[in-house]
Amino acid sequence: MFTIVIAADYCNMKSCSKKNSHTMCKYSSKPAKECGEVKCVGLTDAERKAIVNKHNELRQKIASGKETKGKPGPQPKAVSMPNVIWDKELEEVCQRWINQCKFGHDECRHVDRFIVGQNMAQASSTGKNTATVESMILLWYNEVNDFNNTKIEKYEFEPKIGHYSQLVWAKSTKIGCGKIEFKDSSNWNKINLCCNYGPHGNVNGQKIYEVKK
């Protein structure tokens, strides 16, 4: 018995705006020289589990109507908020991008199955960097403090709440993340975390989730 794996043609991904712009096409799997002194590449199984668990904990907090914060709050209950599950392909693409040590979004990260959304976080320290994947995810979630609860059923993009809205976007049910730890040229100890989501959220005019009346 054997399994045939058909690799995606990332260099000709039709959902990318131009040919050869996909992260898996543009970059090699090794950390870029811009990273400086690389300390750790990739996630442990425990971190993968922690990422999924933290996302689902926060999604269910919103779904059950337990979040009182917002501008205004509280955040209403959801009719449905599926748990996210880990996706190996999304992880692979995210790790390829995070290995470039560029803090920002890549040009194209989509997969054959769907368009992909993305959240990025960075923790920096002159001493030991003690940031965890959970603490970095909370940076995204805490944007709920600025989230207008009237925008749930008709999303309007705002940079300061975009990480939060992607995290709790009900139809984004697959997640894959990447991480790199490095010391840059200015001697800052940095941890960069990337999470890719599919299908993507943050679509203007669409529902983040269906509000339970």
Automatic annotation (TrEMBL):
Is the Secreted keyword given for this protein? Answer: yes
Q: Which residue stretches does the UniProt record annotate as biased composition, category Basic and acidic residues?
A: 59-70
- The answer on whether this UniProt entry bears the keyword Oxidoreductase reads no
**Keyword field:** Disulfide bond, Secreted
The organism's superkingdom is given as: Eukaryota
The protein's matches in InterPro entries, at most eight in alphabetical order, are given as:
Allrgn_V5/Tpx1_CS, CAP_dom, CAP_sf, CRISP-related, V5_allergen-like
Q: Where is the SCP domain?
A: 46-205
Q: Which CDD domains match?
A: CAP_euk (cd05380)
Where is the segment annotated Disordered?
Answer: 59-80
Q: According to its UniProt record, where is this protein located?
A: Secreted
- Say where the protein is mainly found: secreted
Cellular component (GO) terms are: extracellular region
The protein here is known as Venom allergen 3
Q: Which organism is it from?
A: Atta colombica
Tell me the classification of the organism that encodes this protein. Eukaryota, Metazoa, Ecdysozoa, Arthropoda, Hexapoda
